[in-house]
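SAMPLE LOG
Freezer: B-3
Tube label: C17
Construct: single chain, 231 aa
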Amino acid sequence: MNWMAKTRPSGSTTVAARSKTGPVASGAPAANVRISNGLKEFLWFLRDVPRCRVLDLGPVWQATVAFFVDKGYRISAEDLLRTWRDFLVDEEERLRTTTESVGGEKVVPSMLAGKFLEGAVQYPRESFHGVLVWDLFDYFDSVVVSRLTDRIFEILHPGGAVLALFHSRPVERFHRYRIVDSQTLELLPASTLAVHAHVFQNREILELFGKFRSSKTFVGRDQVREGLFLK
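STRUCTURE (predicted):
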């Protein structure tokens, strides 16, 4: 893989911001700030892509939207973990009603994951040049993680990049991420949407992204591993 610097071609780019999760969230005081080499490398690979499109799988932050729009990128957002929480609530109610009316229904994790992804991350193939996953994989069931990785691979343009974060131990507090600048993230405390489900080992991460042609990882002082994966 060529990690040498690239030159952005000249010319203007039409920009737009789109959200699938409703109004843009207002700014909130930062609980913590971390330097992100993974974000720096992620942006480095996108810098010369004309009409670059990025998918953010976290909540919509005005600061993050403005950051990408100022660069001339199109930014889409889908708060996937909140969607998963709402999906599980609806499924629990549906199963409760089914149990009362017809005697119950067995829950099969693979079927649950498939049903969830019928309505989530629905984009045409090769729609995006970059996807921000943040630490979502730490919170999903393993069967969802596997299928979600496949879906991300499908919607990513060849040569596109994925940035994902993995905690080395269960987190004590649930956080959301937003971009401050090209190498800085804010971690903002938020209401817990899901319980930390899994601590990924290096081997598991590499197997999870086995379809991708290359990977690079960074470990911060907070023991959060950042993974950059190239299609």
